[in-house]
Amino acid sequence: MGTEVKEIEIESMEKPQEKTEEVKRLPPWTKQVTVRGVIASIVIGSMYSVIAMKLNLTAGLTPHLNVSAALLGFVFIRTWTKLLQKTGFATTSFTRQENTMIQTCSVACYSIAVGGGFGSYLLGLSRKTYEQAGIDTVGNSPTSIKNPAIGWMTGFLFVVCFVGLFVLIPLRKVMIIDLRLTYPSGTATAVLINGLHSQGDKLAKKQVRGFMKYFSMSLFWGFFQWFYSGKDDCGFSQFPSFGLQAWKQTFYFSFSMTYVGAGMICSHIVNLSLLLGAVLSWGLMWPLIGNLKGHWFPENLPDSSMKSLNGYKVFISVSLILGDGLYNFIKVVVFSITSIYGRLKHQHQRQNLKIVGDEQSKALDDLKQDEVFIRENIPLWIGVTGYIIFSILSATVIPTMFPQLKWYFVLVAYIMAPSLAFCNAYGAGLTDINMAYNYGKVALFMLAALSGKENGVVAALAGCGIIKSMASVSCNLMQDFKTSYFTMASPRAMFLSQAIGTAIGCIIAPLSFFLFYNAFDVGNPEGEYKAPFALIYRNMAILGVEGVAALPQHCLQLCYGFFAFAVMVNMVKDLSSPKIGRWMPLPMCMAFPFLVGAYFAIDMCLGTLIVFVWHKIDNKKAELMLPAVASGLICGEGLWILPASILALAKITPPICMKFLAS
Q1: pTM
Q2: Which end of the chain, C or N, has fewer beta carbons within 10 A?
Q3: pLDDT tens, 589-629?
Q4: What is the largest distance, in Å, between two alpha-carbon atoms of the chain?
């Protein structure tokens, strides 16, 4: 990330005159949001919504696809213009500002599928999740059920997501220009977009060909392996790569190009942390705890019971998530406060010393970027009015959807929301960590404790969605503002693109969810679509209502141990030398395989191995082609999900079941 920022600085110092000329010929913001751009955004956002929904409902882990969306937008429009030119139609030039608009709109669209709660707090309200949590579990009230439906889910998303668009508009200049927050992901996306539009046609064509090649291969592979998956536990996705005994403990390569591509995008430490979590849980702990059946828990209970092995899986993973989340939450808040104090103190010293000519010391490109960013101002009244209207609308509509969540809790949440959104966006600007889920978890536990046994679970899960969605959307908008700052796209165009993408996402995401919900057995702990975080979030709410009474025997001691482990690993990572710290695993990532299994971690580690070897063989080519190859692998198999779902809805099953049995 640091090298990419340095490249921007070096490039801008070498070409100041070019920068000046570029500012003069920038298209107005109304020309940056184009019809073809919106169409491309809908196509890319819809495809990524389906892919993100699959990842959400299977592994529960979705990588950042911002860079991939920017590349795909470039490929889409370049292909579009080439086809039109060949048929004799005139086309307008494709600018980096339009590319930024497509990236912003498509990411806003698929972000609703990622963070809308379809695999966590919203699905946690369903009857199936209620039954999995144990109908006899204390605190798991039979009235705390709200089954998924397109109507209320779409309405809920509209009212909670649009609040986040308006909450930080008044602080846009402060965070991007005055505080100079880095927003590494936003900066990396801008580096890619600027590179795509300045590297020349030869390299661009190479990336496009690479994307199309691996997209086609991945699409064909998804189609081919479908024929062999006639029943459960059939097909290449259940291939016992390391033997049948390892397969029973979920250690096998599932031949998923989506996971391999995701592994190529995620960092090495993320993938290795997943593998470590898989080995620790499925390779060591679950077999050992399973052998204690009859001692730690009754023999007559199925493994899926929350008072049996499944209870240990859920609550130990919850303890890792909470330990990691709480540590990072406190760290980011403290870091943000000290950083703000340091900046204010430095500013006060500069004023006392009467240092002038500050503007002259700035790099020329910074001045031009500042000029574009400030010139395209978003009126303050839009932010204030929009926030007030949607806050009142939410406080009215949400208690109607969820009578257990009182209107005054919603109102208090939105009174606190601006400060929470600022803390989250400021922390993300410094560390690139979006803490929206952790803010949501804090709200979850508070509301569970305040709302009582009958109302606690529903109030907690719905309230978690309010805070999480608001904090996440506002943070994403700031990331996009940082991207627009470097590509010199209009903030007005970015805001409009984000609003369009959010509106599309609020419609597409529920449709994507019900595509899976109706076609497959979502929420089945033994199936492919386990939706592990639905059960985790519901049990966190039960824990908030009842406390440790909800835990099975000896589980509390194990939870204490893993909570302490998560905190300790983070402390070692932050306090030790970089040589040691970079090898510390990520507890949050370790928690994912605890419920899901080891197979997706193995697939993603193959992706990280490909990246490592490619960089060793040809580093320059790897830097150029990796985003295109990874995007092609993800999108190809992701596109096959649509016809596969339609075939499942039509009750058309694959003709062959390829299964392996012991001799």
Answers
A1: 0.77
A2: C
A3: 888 888 788 888 899 899 999 999 999 998 888 888 888 88
A4: 85
